[in-house]
Design brief:
heterodimer, A: 5 helices, 5 strands, B: 430 residues, alpha+beta, 5-stranded mixed sheet, 11 helices, 18% strand
């Protein structure tokens, strides 16, 4: 079966661990690759530096994006992404703590495809993760991203 | 100026010209207000008077000839500070002494209307001039008193002065007002800045609560669950019960964080008070709490239909009703079914919405505390809740300029009420 790499942009190591554990234990389709800052994410997407090895760091079919990151925020990454030729098509699911209307609205303004709140209840989080995997990686049709060339 | 006493002859031109002139008629018709007075101080007998003078003083010749000047023309008795008589008398005395003319400064000297017209005094201003007529011994034979009426002039000047004073006062007041406006504007700007700062702080608080408090909560809960799943089989019952406690605490913390966020949002921002459909808010509230109530069938709540509209905010009112009704359903004696009634009492100005229950009731000494934040009267184990519902009610009602209160008896039930201004007619959105 075709690999389904997911780029996870998340700096909280506990959240990363629990996400990875959930994918592993439930045999989900997605293959997680994690970066912890916006700059790292941009390097990954454009295949710069250590990320040029596309065998080790494959181009993702989905991005899971936390909003609260050190330095630049998830909003900044979204804004950058939607400006890139080709790469702008990458489906982005915001996965974050906040349920505040301001954050949800801003995420969709900047082009997020979906907004999910991290459920602290592990049972709820499991359901969310399974659904996410099924919907975005199996059901959703993938757009072509081309090579990550900077538009502006 | 001296003149020869007219005895009918003049050495140069002869008697013909002078004696033919009717000096009396001439004098009496002279264009000016003149009085001729005898030098018999202090009486100053009036010897002759021009028609003009009679006119401006509203007197008759027959009335005044032969009488003393000040007897005919006294001061206005209503003018306490009248100086006419005194100054005129002084001027006469000066003329008698110096045998020279004396021009007085503008003098107020009121004249009296004739008795037939009421006899009131009228305000007058004059420039009087008093001139001596000397005889051949250089003694004063007559005093000619000339009075120029300058009343109109004086009053106009006074009017102008008054207008100028008013204009100056107005200018000063305007300058004062401008300063005041400037000061108030500055105050408003400062208040606005403070409000913006306080709103920014509230935003930061909400942000922190939303993100930073939830992260460790997720970790605790997630790892407790992971422990249970991965090592549960190896743990004894005690260890597993510890994990359950961790999980329960995490759940509780999640509830508290959510409640705190809800409470914080109620305080936030300005709301505009508009007419609100009370019945719709009630239905929305019941819908919101539907899942949390043991009896899903909403027939346990008896709602008065067609309640009048109130001035408020529909989201806040819905939250208030949801909190009150869910409390009413929750705080019942174990085993009993909740029975809740929602109705309203009105007076011409206000609408009081009452949520009445047959629950456990609240003791009088506790009725104040329950509206505080995180207040629990009973053990959290007995009645689940965050202890923030009534605090939200309080804040929301205050935001809507309303009133709230409770009447309750332990073991019988409670009536929680909230009161707002009547809204009158509201237009229903399509």
């Amino acid at each position: 079966m075709q690999p389904k790499p997911i780029l996870v942009v998340e700096d909280d190591q506990n959240d990363v661990f629990l996400l990875q554990r959930t994918f592993r234990r439930n045999n989900l389709v997605g293959e997680l690759h994690t970066v912890t800052t916006v700059d790292e994410a941009i390097s990954y997407l454009t295949g710069e530096g250590k990320f040029s090895d596309r065998n080790q760091f494959p181009s993702p079919v989905l991005m899971l994006l936390d909003l609260k990151l050190p330095g630049k925020s998830g909003f900044d990454l979204l804004a950058w992404l939607r400006n890139q030729q080709g790469l702008c098509r990458l489906p982005v699911v915001v996965l974050t703590s906040s349920a505040q209307a301001e954050d949800i609205n801003k995420a969709f303004d900047l082009g997020a495809n979906s907004y999910l709140v991290k459920d602290p209840d592990p049972a709820g989080f499991l359901d969310l993760t399974k659904l996410l995997d099924l919907y975005w990686l199996t059901l959703n049709q993938k757009p072509e991203l081309g090579l990550g060339r900077r538009a502006v | 100026m001296s003149a020869r006493t007219p005895d009918g002859s003049n050495p140069e031109t002869g008697p013909a010209t002078q004696t033919d002139v009717d000096f009396c008629a001439l004098f009496e018709s002279a264009p000016g207000a003149y009085l001729v007075l005898a030098p018999d101080s202090p009486r100053f007998t009036i010897l002759a008077v021009t028609d003009s003078y009679l006119r401006v003083t509203m007197t008759e010749r027959s009335e005044i000839l032969g009488r003393g000047l000040f007897e005919v023309f006294p001061d206005n008795p209503n003018e306490v500070s009248a100086t006419g008589v005194q100054h005129l008398r002084s001027s006469f005395e000066r003329v008698l002494r110096s045998k020279l003319p004396n021009v007085m400064p503008i003098q107020r000297y009121d004249v009296q209307r004739p008795g037939s017209s009421g006899g009131e005094f009228e305000k007058r201003y004059w420039i009087p001039t008093n001139s001596p007529v000397l005889d051949h011994n250089d003694e004063v034979r007559y005093i000619i008193h000339r009075a120029e009426d300058v009343t109109e002039f004086v009053e106009r000047k006074a009017g102008e002065a008054k207008i100028k004073l008013e204009a100056d006062t107005l200018l000063a007041r305007t300058a004062e007002l401008e300063l005041e406006v400037e000061r108030r504007s500055r105050e408003v700007s400062e208040a606005t800045i403070k409000l913006e700062q306080s709103n920014a702080e509230l935003e930061a608080f909400n942000y922190t609560v939303s993100h930073d408090l939830r992260a460790p909560l997720r970790a605790m809960w997630g790892f407790a669950k992971a422990m249970e799943e991965d090592y549960g089989a190896e743990l004894d019952e005690t260890a597993r019960s510890y994990l359950r406690e961790i999980t329960d605490s995490a759940k509780r913390m999640d509830q508290l964080i959510n409640a705190l966020l809800a409470y914080s949002r109620v305080g936030r921002g300005e709301i505009t008070l508009v007419p609100v459909d009370t019945n719709k808010c009630l239905q929305d509230a019941l819908h919101q709490i539907g899942g949390d109530v043991p009896n899903k069938d909403q027939s346990w709540v008896d709602c008065q239909p067609n309640m009048p509209a109130v001035l408020g905010d529909s989201i806040l009112l819905t939250a208030v009703l949801a909190n009150l009704i869910s409390n009413a359903a929750k705080f019942v004696t174990a085993g009993r079914e909740a029975r809740v009634r929602v109705f309203c009492e009105t007076d011409p100005q206000n609408v009081r919405i009452v949520v009445e229950d047959e629950g456990i009731g609240i003791a009088v000494e506790d009725q104040g505390r329950i509206f505080g934040v995180f207040e629990h009267l009973h053990g959290v184990d007995k009645y689940q809740g965050t202890g923030i519902g009534l605090a939200i009610v309080r804040r929301a009602v205050e935001k809507m300029n309303g009133k709230f209160g409770v009447e309750s008896t332990v073991g019988v039930g409670s009536r929680f009420w909230v009161e707002f201004a009547q809204a009158g007619e509201i237009s229903r959105a399509a």
